[in-house]
Amino acid sequence: MDKKKAAYERWTKDALIKRIQTLEANLVRAETHNQDSTTTTAAEGSSTNNATPSPPKKKKIERKIDSSKYSTRLVAFKLAYLGKRYGGFEFAVHANLPSIEEELWKAFVKACLIFPENPDVVDWDSCEYSKCGRTDRGVSAFGQVIAVRVRSNRPLPKEAPEGEREDGGNVEGEGGAAEEKREFDDFTDELPYCRILNKLLPPDIRMLAWCPTTAADFSARHDCRERQYRYFFTQPAFAPYPQSLENPAGTATTKVKGGWLDIEAMRRAAKKFEGTHDFRNFCRVDPSKLNINFERKVFEADIVEVEDAETALPFLDRDEFKPTSTSDAGLKKLPKVYYFHVRGTAFLWHQIRCMASVIFMVGQGLEDPSVIDRLLDIEAEPRRPNYQLADEIPLVLWDCKFPRPEKPQNALDWAYVGEDNPLYQHGITGLLGGVWEYWREKKMDELLASQLLNIVSSQADINLRRDPKAPLHIPTTTTRIFEGGDKERLAGKYQPLLKKPRLPSPQETFDKEARRKGYADAADMREAFIRKREEAAAAAGEPPPEVAALEEEAE
Fold first, then answer.
1. What is the pLDDT of residues 138-160, one digit of tens each?
2. pLDDT per residue over 378-418, tens digit each?
3. Which contiguous run of DSSP H or E holds residue 33?
4. What would the mean pLDDT of 268-283 be, rounded to a whole number?
5. How many helices (H) and strands (E) does the chain have?
6. Of 361, 411, 448, 499, which has the maximum CB count within 10 A?
7. Angle, nearest 10°, between helix axes 522-539 and 547-554?
8. What is the DSSP pairing of strand 336-344 with strand 226-235?
């Protein structure tokens, strides 16, 4: 029973549903057959009709492509997806939501670009598959990169016929000189990979480009030199209260008006992330990982305004809603849209969301930018304060840059959709038209919501106070905190970041996980892992792997 259960664990959701439907249909068919047999037996005893029964219907046999008749090639793809509907990029066995990898798997299988032994099981091992980033649940990407060995239209090498010389020429005789072979063209002769896949993928997952010159040893993970993230937010971050309802006698917990952000303070804080630092206080520790290196290099960190992205909400232009101490106090066309921009070699689990969370605390005047210096000092702060992560939806893996300086030959020369055939970009079924349709649907949602918000904000005259028991001011006992989501979180009296309870140190987390698995500590578990890999290499007649490679594999 356990083996059967394990066999279904990596099946796609659609395949499992199809399997259940097949089993239910077989059950119904068996019950119907039993009833028909009983009825037929009774009828044969009393009927004199000797009519010939109709022959059973033949089952439709699915025709499969013979993969041996096709050549393959390793192709790098650049893709974009909106992650709100998905449980993350990486396929997870017990996830409640579909993953991006599962949708990609189904599209590649259906297009017969890959030929797995069991198409229902998500297993990329046979495809030389690699991915650049593993985005979490809800996170989007506009420049994700994967590499897959796929079916190609390139002709297979043919054996030389009996009448052909070893040097490629023909023997003398009828037929004359040999015909010149035309060179294979990647755009006129090859499969239109992106166009094929975009027809099969959901509208919120799009293939943007492919690389015809992908190197044979290319790895989307190991050859990436830089990853760029953007975390989007609005200014104001949430609906501010009118000044008339704010209690002037109350003790203010922040110098910034509720709902608004101090963009300049956020920018000063963001710049502190630049350089090489130990980011253990800006990530979530995965106890199953054996690598304990938390040092990462950030090339650039900044707060950037998105030009011409405003949706006019006129009520924010009224003085009673405006801040008095931020750089946006005198501006029109509110709210504004900004993003927290980060460029680096690689990032830890939830690192960007942790960084954004602290940046937002600074922007609300709850923390000083110097708190980042303190958290980057692991000797002063060896354990991370237990603060909330920023919401996942506004985070985007914006782009991935190749190659690493030490392997310039693995650069990617992207061929974007439409550069081969303009109709693939602007035709009736082109990429741009499909994305436009998706955008307009969401734009109408935004437009109607903004019109409704404008109506609601202008209808009521709150100065009437028709209820004599209505309070004069909003209570100040609760702090409203912005963490990147659609609304603020009520947090009671704000507790400064450096006074919050501390989480266990990474080493304590690793040791606890190792003891749970029966080891003495994390070092013992790491040695056991290296020993197993060395034994496996010896059994296969391979040289022992280097320690650095094992550590990278464990990470």
1. 999 999 999 999 999 999 987 65
2. 999 999 999 999 999 999 999 999 999 999 999 999 999 99
3. helix 13-46
4. 97
5. 12, 12
6. 361
7. 110
8. antiparallel
Q: What percent of the chain has pLDDT over 90?
A: 59
CA distance 413 to 76: 10
Query: Of 80, 74, 62, nearest to 120 (Cα)?
Result: 62
Are 78 and 198 in contact by the 8 Å Cβ rule? The answer is no
Asked if residue 215 lies in contact with residue 132, where contact means CB atoms within 8 angstroms, the answer is no
Q: Which tens digit of pLDDT belongs to each residue from 104-134?
A: 999 999 999 999 999 999 999 989 999 999 9
- Cα 330 to Cα 148, 318, 333, distances in angstroms: 52, 10, 10
Helices (H), 314-367: 351-363
- Give the list of residues 6+ apart from residue 67 with CB closer than 8 angstroms, or none: 115, 151
Assess whether the previous peptide bond of 98 is cis (omega < 30° from 0).
Answer: no
Q: What is the DSSP string of 428-474?
A: TT-HHHHHHHHHHHHHHHHHHHHHHHHHHHHH--TTS--STT--SS-
Fold of the domain spanning 226-394+427-461+476-499: Alpha-Beta Plaits (3.30.70)
Cite the active site residues. 136
**Is the bond preceding residue 403 a cis peptide, omega within 30 degrees?**
yes
**Domain regions of the chain by residue span:** 2-38, 226-394+427-461+476-499, 517-554
